[in-house]
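pasting for ref
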Amino acid sequence: MARTSSILSTAEARRTTVVAAAVTEFSRTGYLGTPISAVAERAQISPAYVFKLFPSKETLFVAALERCFERITETLLQGADQATTQSPGDVLYAMGGAYAELIADRELLMLQVHAQSASDEPAIRAALRRGLAEITTLASGRSRASDVEVQRFIAIGQLCHLIVTTGIETSDDAWAILLTDGIRHPTH
């Protein structure tokens, strides 16, 4: 019985390693542009073993996206716990600041962007919807903010994505200043 337990723990450890490698690789080159061999190389295991753990590239991408949303959820909760007060506005503000810090390394941000571009794949679309539902429900429940405030919080998060991916936070153009004014976002 001990052998089965050690095999399962080894497989789970490998699974965690592969998902971490997948987050990195998919964030760089997207769902379509990332071969399983690149994930396997980063995880330092064979592509065959990756397929043993994840039967398809799609299931691996979904696992990476789920891990992304887990990290976002953890970060939002930490932000909420550090809010100056527990008023809805302060909680959402603290959650937003924590999220801006999280995406400073761009890996989770870019994975979300690539997931959106691959959302014609039903499993990826479903994972995106689950992640968005979890974040929206968390923001609403934890902050006790109004629906309008939560909608604005999510919308500003998406605007933050746009600002960071396009690099307009350093632009002096009037249109870029209009979009970035008052928006917290990570700096490069």
